[in-house]
Design brief:
The chain is an alpha+beta fold and 442 residues long. It contains twelve helices and 21 strands.
Length: 442
């Protein structure tokens, strides 16, 4: 239903009134007897403004169209179309009020383009910056008369919901699909001979093979060297654990770190499901938030995406002791646990190191963090003044502390991935495939 339009003056009409004010003053100063001309002039301006607004025409159609579902960080469009009857409008503008996760600052504006036959259209870019459900709340349409002095305007309630899901664009990428069709973890489940732990067969020993694979009993029995071949394991358990605390909610490249981590995890989870492994998601902050059942088929990948959409943004410090102890208590067998987290100094990371160290006693742990490129740029920049030198020294100190934390994790036997936000997905897939080839999980 289209609301009734209000008649309003434009900024050009206001300028016209301001320009007429000196004329009225001159009239009052030099011809006091002609004071009646001033109200007549004001009335004439009012009539012109109202006539111009009426000439803009009547709104007969107003639609706002956008996708009901989108992904965080993926650009989309909100399309606005209006229809005007008996219109001589010179311009049509629109504005939207929405959830800040959909539009920067919660507001978007655009100028409509004439399509002919009284139809106008505009597109306002939509760039979701956080997961969750955002709402398009209200819309305003203003169309101006041919003189640009008067306009008509309506305000319309929308209450249109847009669900923002985790970004899984890398899963749909042709390059990844081609990779999955050709590598060992391909589309068809089959035996994979490699460096796993499950015995597959004996083969004649050839130069270059690992001598530790020689089966000396069989070689002595056949008077010929034979080596063992192993099959890479399937049905491994992989848990992607997300720190949803304050540090992971800080933006990097325009999106929160947690959303970058979710994209990398879901992409790797898809590869793992193709490889026959089982995947679960675990999210925590001050307390455990999300823990999904293990998924073992790509047809259930949507369940992982929906669970990842429920990972909230928490403005609090994570409780690693409670979260990782709870996770360890829920795992009945050895698993690969991929922990996504960030930290600012060794003191705040101490409890994290201790908790992850306890996990390594039974499970294989992979720690993933995003490189702080801003700190690296500050530390590497040539200082030209004392404030810049102070910043460079502070940034270098923080980077050294960060390296110390990562070295302590490596000393505990934790595999560490530190990479720019746009490369952690590829690095994580490579690390997973390397671990799978070695059969290090089972």
């Amino acid at each position: 239903m289209v609301s009734r339009a209000a008649l309003i003056p434009t900024p050009r009409a206001a300028l016209l009134v301001v320009a007429a004010a000196p004329a009225a003053l001159l009239l009052a100063a030099f011809a006091p007897a002609g004071w009646a001309a001033a109200p007549v002039l004001a009335l004439a301006v009012l009539v012109v403004v109202l006539g111009d607004a009426l000439a803009a025409g009547r709104l007969t159609e107003f639609t706002v169209d956008t996708l009901a579902d989108t992904e965080v960080g993926e650009e989309g469009w909100i399309t606005i179309e209006v229809g005007l009857a008996r219109s001589r409008a010179s311009a049509v503008a629109c504005a939207l009020a929405a959830d800040p996760r959909l539009l920067a600052g919660g507001r978007g504006e655009g100028q409509l383009v004439a399509l002919g036959a009284g139809k106008w259209r505009a597109g306002i870019p939509l760039y979701p910056t956080r997961r969750g459900t955002g709402t398009l709340e209200r819309a305003w349409i203003r169309w101006t008369g041919p003189l640009g002095l008067g306009a008509r305007q309506i305000e319309q309630a929308l209450s249109r919901e847009v669900r923002v899901w985790p970004n899984v664009a890398p899963v749909r990428a042709p390059s990844l699909q081609a990779f999955l069709k050709n590598v060992e973890t391909g589309m068809i489940a089959r035996r994979i001979r490699g460096e796993g732990s499950q015995f597959e067969a004996l083969a004649e020993y050839e130069p270059g093979m690992d001598r530790r694979r020689i089966d000396w009993k069989s070689s002595a029995r056949h008077a010929h060297l034979y080596a063992k071949e192993y099959e890479a394991e399937r049905n491994n358990q992989i848990v992607f654990a997300f720190d949803c605390g304050q540090a992971m909610c800080e933006p990097v490249g325009g999106l929160p770190r947690i959303d970058r981590a979710v994209t990398a995890a879901l992409t790797t989870a898809y590869v793992a499901l193709k490889g026959g492994d089982r995947v679960s998601l675990y999210g925590f902050a001050a307390r455990p938030e999300v823990f999904t059942p293990f998924v073992s088929d790509t047809r259930e990948f949507r369940r992982l995406q929906m669970a990842a959409a429920g990972l909230d943004y928490q403005a609090q410090e994570p409780n690693f002791t409670l979260a990782l102890a709870t996770l360890a208590g829920r795992l009945a067998r050895r698993s690969l646990i991929v922990v996504f987290s960030d930290f600012t100094d060794p003191t705040s990371a101490q409890l994290m190191i201790e908790s992850i160290g306890r996990l390594t006693q039974r499970h294989l742990v992979l720690f993933v963090t995003m490189a702080d490129e801003e700190l690296e740029d500050i530390a590497a920049a040539a200082p030209t003044a004392m404030p810049e030198l102070t910043q460079a020294v502070a940034a270098d100190s923080l980077l050294r502390q960060r390296a110390l934390v990562l070295s302590r994790l490596r000393a505990l036997g934790v595999d560490v991935i530190e990479a720019p936000y746009n490369r952690i997905g590829l690095r994580l897939i490579d690390a997973y495939l390397a671990i799978k080839r070695k059969g290090a999980i089972g």
